[in-house]
Amino acid sequence: MSHADHTPSDEGKRSRILEAAFEVCERRGVAAARMEEVAARAQVSKATLYRFFESKQQLLLAALIAGYDEDLRVTYENVESTADPRRVLDQVLEGLVRVLEASTPSMRVFYQIWGVVAEDPTSRTQLDEFMRSFHAERKRELTQLLRRGQLAGLFRAGVSPEVVAQSIDALVDGYCYWATYDPESATPDALRACFDTLVRGVLVVDAPT
Predict the structure, then answer these.
(1) pLDDT (tens digit, 9 = 90+) per residue, 4-25?
(2) What's the pTM?
(3) Which domain holds residue 99?
(4) Are 4 and 91 within one domain?
């Protein structure tokens, strides 16, 4: 059954399964997590679980992708797309800070999931394709926003929007990785300070009031 064929009832079951999978992984560790326990925690039969996900790797891949989809929702939930580009950029960057804050407690589980998913060539290929698409889209949207600000004379014309977008993307990923082993240093405030230096020092001609 494809994701597009799911009924509303199926979607509810699928969401419960993904939440249960992550909860079991947090408690047991990813390697020790068992499909039977996920099914029990999601309150579905084992047959139902395998109707959605044919293997543990496919289940974990879906849980990982759901986490990134949630990151996108958090990033853009408070963004006013028609506002001054400087203000929109501030809102997007604050959304990325919230992503770090929300993700930090779970980053070890995310990296463990990566390792298990990578054991299956098909799942690894699907993950690689998703990650390329995810980061390309984030950089594309940032690039378009920065270019819009340049055309309005609000951002410095001599700065490459693509390079700044890649720098922002890399900062977020770097802080998420850093948070796996030193969460007391990889803090939201520290990421805000990096964004402030990058944006105020390199990009913005006149900061919004």
Answers:
(1) 445 547 888 999 999 999 999 9
(2) 0.85
(3) 66-203
(4) no
